[in-house]
Design goal:
The structure is a homodimer. By secondary structure, the first copy, chain A, is α/β, with parallel strands linked by helices. The first copy, chain A, has 5 helices and 8 strands; from the N terminus they run βαβαβαβαββαββ. Chains A and B meet through α1, β4, β6 and α5 of A and α1, β4, β6 and α5 of B.
């Protein structure tokens, strides 16, 4: 199966909540891991580790790696780069998703904040620029919809390994099972 | 067409960024408006109004209304309430989405933060409890995937009215058109 990794660009300390949500979204929607570009943020690392410890993995979180290095390595190893941006081809009425799938290659999904370096749009960085509708909204929403469509929903029924807790879905109420 | 409105519960001032993202996600993914339950937050109101002014609408934002009042009025007017929660029926491997559609009724989507009042799970409040996978992640991601699946992607090609700006999708680069 194709591997998907998320590269989060543009994190600042005040984005703690949002970037944590991005990491948990990446994990729950089928990505293998998330890399925090350029900066370190121990609080996010702790949050992710806590979730993986309780709810299972595998899901990796790395930080402080220059984005250029991540992209270069990814491409050298034969992967492609998908940049999520409001300016890109609309996932709904273009064939961009088909073209991405046809590559059959592992995908590095770059999510930035509002204003990314213009080089992100160029071939040097992105193989595809994808918009989840051409309206400004949220990188969290974009990432979630992209992954849900890419994995066709199968990511939502995946079993996580080494989980200590697992939710048993209910129409009403909350049921959590303790495992292992 | 069925109307969908989002009710955001549990907002605190430090959630400014996240709640703004929720509002913009609601707008871009096809909801008619968002209500901020119980509290007021002028900064979010301003953010939403700015986006609607520039990128078009209609999309309403109300705040400071007690959640009980919103729910009561919605149900009295014949609508149903869908509560998004990690504990609910998994959208991917249950028939909850079919049952929601079959009602044919307008939908109030409640998104909370981590710990919502247990009454949200009861019939008194929710007609359906829906999980976007039974893993903890983000209300932003959950809302986006729920709306994308509910509207089957059509929300992503909708034209907004009275827009001053519009993005023309490109495989590379940024093209913004000034309208009217």
């Amino acid at each position: 199966m194709v591997r998907v990794v998320v590269l989060r660009w543009g994190h600042r300390p005040r984005d703690y909540r949002l970037t944590s949500h991005l990491a948990l979204t990446a994990r729950a929607l089928g990505a293998e891991g998330m890399i925090l570009a350029d900066v370190k943020d121990e609080s996010i690392k702790k949050t992710v580790e806590k979730v993986v410890d309780r709810w299972g993995g595998p899901f990796f979180f790395e930080m402080g790696i220059p984005w250029k290095e991540v992209v270069k390595k990814w491409k050298n190893e034969g992967g492609i780069v998908v940049h999520l941006t409001a300016y890109g081809e609309n996932i709904e009425n273009s064939n961009v998703m088909d073209r991405i799938r046809k590559t059959g290659k592992d995908i590095l999904v770059i999510v930035g904040s509002q204003k990314v370096p213009s080089v992100f749009f160029s071939e040097e960085v992105s193989d595809f620029n994808v918009a989840i509708g051409n309206q400004p909204h949220s990188e969290c929403a974009s990432l979630a919809v992209f992954l849900d469509r890419y994995f066709e929903g199968k990511e939502l029924v995946k079993e996580f390994k080494n989980a200590k807790l697992k939710i048993d879905p209910l129409p009403r109420g909350k049921k959590v099972i303790r495992l292992g």
